[in-house]
Amino acid sequence: MNRVLSLIVVGMMLVSCGENQHADKVAEKNNSSGNDDIRYSAIVVSSSQPVREIQLPGELESFYETDIFPKVSSYISKIHVDIGDKVSKGQLLAELEAPELIANLTAAFSKVKAAEAVYQSSKTVYHRALNTRKTPGAISETDVETYWAKAVSDSLMVVAEQAHYESVKQLVDYLKITAPFTGVVTDRRLSPGAFVGPGGQSSVPLLKIKQLDRLRLRLAVPEAYLGDIRVGTPVQFSVRAFQNEVFTGKLARISHSVRPDTRAEMIEIDITNTNGKLKPGMYASAKLPVQANEGSIFVPRSAVVTNMEHTFVIKVVNGTAVRVPVHRGDATDSHVQIFGDIKDGDVILKVASDEIPNNSPITIEAIP
């Protein structure tokens, strides 16, 4: 009986060993077959000019804004507008009083009329002398020339007095202050009765006016992107007051001057603000599209690997995986610019890995 049991145990052990050896061979075969069947996705490198965006802060400004200062020494008589009032170009804003200017205007007008009367008299004398000269010996040529010179002199005096009158009249016109452009009164510092002008409170503006239907957004663009900006490019921006809304303007002006302190160039974005929703002074965050003049190598972010030693991509050369060191440049949401021994037409892995050995055989999928 014991002999039979021994034979049964030995038989079971042999069967178990045989099964284990068979399982190991199957697993080894499956693993070998799996490695041979791995195919990697690859792409063909080509130069491109992708449009990317840089985030820049800025501040909204009115397209036109000005401080209104009286041009002549006078007293404020009336102010017809106040803070928040909308005004149109040429609208009367304030009236000033300067009695001495009115007196000067009256005196200048009187001098013009007096000069015209003198001229008319001398001109009449000259024409009478011309008629008298028709009678031989009635008047000498010297007297005729004298009368002619007197008439010319008096005519020039009329011109001079007329110019003086116009200058005084211009000063009187300054007593009525009008709006230089359509906008909104944003500040008023003085009141009726205040003495203003060169001899008065000249450092304090009477009013401040800003244009609201058209705004500017000034942005400082870093020197590295100056070759990539274009006039006419649409620019999107947002403001804190309306965080869920995106506004659009157009790049209108480039200063063409780099500031030494910031190494940046100032640009201006024109904004149409017909509804008056945006206000001058608002902080804005703009996305400026930039596009390089020359083509660059941009590859998917997944194609670039960085380890402890270097940054590289894996180029496929005659069925071999070759690690090519590269340097990163600008980046977009999905691609990154690279610099290195990579050129148009090279084939690289779309998803590279540090686990793929250098100079190892590799199989790639068909490239569409």
Write structural notes for this entry.
The structure is a single chain. This protein has 368 residues and is an alpha+beta fold. The chain has four domains: 42-50 and 295-361, conserved putative lor/sdh protein from methanococcus maripaludis s2 fold (Beta Barrel); 54-64 and 211-290, Beta Barrel (Elongation Factor Tu (Ef-tu), domain 3); 65-95 and 175-210, OB fold (Dihydrolipoamide Acetyltransferase, E2P) (Beta Barrel); 99-174. It has helices spanning 2-37, 99-133, 141-173; strands spanning 42-44, 47-48, 52-62, 65-68, 74-79, 86-87, 92-97, 176-178, 183-188, 195-196, 207-210, 214-222, 234-239, 242-259, 264-272, 283-290, 296-300, 305-306, 311-317, 320-331, 335-340, 347-349, 360-361. The strands form five sheets. Strands 2, 17, 18, 19, 20, 21 and 23 form a seven-stranded antiparallel β-sheet that branches. Strands 3-12-15-14-13-16 form a six-stranded antiparallel β-barrel. The chain has a four-stranded antiparallel β-sheet with strand order 4-11-9-6, with no helix packed on it. Strand 14 and strand 15 (264-272) form a beta hairpin. It is elongated, with a radius of gyration of 45 Å. The model is unreliable at 1-12 and 14-35 (pLDDT under 50).
Topology diagram in text:
Layout: H1 2-37, E1 42-44, E2 47-48, E3 52-62, E4 65-68, E5 74-79, E6 86-87, E7 92-97, H2 99-133, H3 141-173, E8 176-178, E9 183-188, E10 195-196, E11 207-210, E12 214-222, E13 234-239, E14 242-259, E15 264-272, E16 283-290, E17 296-300, E18 305-306, E19 311-317, E20 320-331, E21 335-340, E22 347-349, E23 360-361
